[in-house]
Amino acid sequence: MVKPWIRRVFLIHLCMQVLIVLSGGIVRLTGSGLGCTTAPQCVPGSIIPVADQHQGLATVIEFSNRILSVLVGFVALLAVIAAWKSGSRRLLQLSGIPIIFTLVQGILGGITVNTGLHPGTVMAHFLFSAILVAAASVLYIRSIQPDQPRQLTVRKEVWWLGIGMSVALAAVLIAGTVTTGTGPHAGDAENPPRFNLDLQFVTHIHAEIGIAFAMLVVAMLIALRLSKASQLARELSWWLLAAVALQATIGYLQVFSGLPILLVAMHMLAASLLVVVMAFLMCELRRAPDTASAPAETGASDQAPVAAQAPDGTTSADNENDGAVLTAGNKTDGAAQPAGSEDAATSGRTSANT
Q1: CB-based contact 47:66 (threshold 8 Å)
Q2: pLDDT 10s digits, 113-161
Q3: Contact criterion met (CB below 8 Å) for 135 and 14
Q4: CA 279/CA 133 separation, integer angstroms
């Protein structure tokens, strides 16, 4: 079993990956994306902000996000060390994905700044964050499960339904980033570059893909209810449905209220939670079986054996009692035989004398 402190490191790592998504969203929503005008330096010649920068609060927000990104990288490195300390090769392999993608994310963030916050790079920046959240979720949930070869816990049809849900969720996220790249929140308050698309059209596409994903979630909930799925899988499907309902509610509210910053930030956070629950559910559908209860059942059967029942309704205990009675009877007969033999001998001698 993985030690509790290792699981705590993985959980902190997951929380940090979700937090950096929210932090990056705040940078974009407040128009602070160019608070530091270059990367990896904040301004030419200095890695930290300087006193004569004119960006003001935008510099504070952007530089704070950069510091948080460094902390995320540090925690990702701690996750690799924790996985190595666990002695599990699977966890060590899983921990390598976040650290690699965190480095890639840092490079991509610099490219995003140096290209003037082009919506294509901003879009890729968020999608890489979603991959990091999913990888951190898998790392954490696998540390709770047994470190054994994985197998399906449901029918193959249910597993492929989960694959379809994952693809649909990825499509929802991609459509959402395209919608964001077309909308007003570009990350730069002065000269925001945008996708040359119709905002209403891409919003409808995003919503329709989201509805399709919600229908797949309902189908999964029913399938798990009708199949021999674990209790945790059923609970996670309900949590996923609740997250979809929350995300849809926030999405429609932000559209009808003119895309206020607070609701858009909540929408991004809810998207991260969707990725987390989806990753948990897929890991539960294909996992190593629990074997902890097997030794206990075997020990109990050894200590209290069940008496076998014969076809006539008697048990092995009754047969043992009958055997004991028969043995006692044989001993009694054996003890009576010498007396009978002496009587027969006396009768024989009497007949001979006669």
Answers
A1: no
A2: 888 888 888 889 999 999 999 999 999 999 999 988 899 999 999 999 9
A3: no
A4: 9
Which residues make Cβ contacts (< 8 Å) with residue 349, sequence separation at least 6? none
133: three-class secondary structure by DSSP = helix
Find out whether 183 and 198 touch, Cβ atoms under 8 Å: no
Amino acid (1-letter code) at residue 267: H
Beta bridge partners of 151: 287
Instruction: Output the six-digit token pair for 2.
Output: 């993985």
Cα torsion 347, 348, 353, 354 to 10°: value is 70
Q: Tokens 């499960």 correspond to what residue?
A: 145
Residues 6+ apart with CB under 8 A from 223: 154, 157, 158, 161, 229
Angle at 14 between CA 13 and CA 20, to 5 degrees: 90
Q: Tokens in use for 256?
A: 């009808």
Contact residues for 86 (Cβ-Cβ < 8 A; gap 6+): 2, 3, 6, 92, 143
Asked if omega into 305 is within 30° of 0 (cis), the reply is no
Give the Cα-Cα-Cα angle 119, 275, 255 (nearest 5 degrees). Answer: 55
Helix and strand numbers (H, E) in the chain are 10, 2
Distances (CA, A) of 92 to 13, 95, 275, 279, 319: 14, 5, 22, 18, 58
40 preceded by a cis bond (ω within 30 of 0): yes
Q: 313 φ, ψ to 5°?
A: 100, -10
Task: For residue 239, give the nearest of 252, 212, 220, 263 by alpha carbon.
Answer: 220
User: 44-93 pLDDT, tens per residue?
Assistant: 888 988 887 777 888 999 999 999 999 999 999 999 999 999 999 999 99
pTM, entire model? 0.79
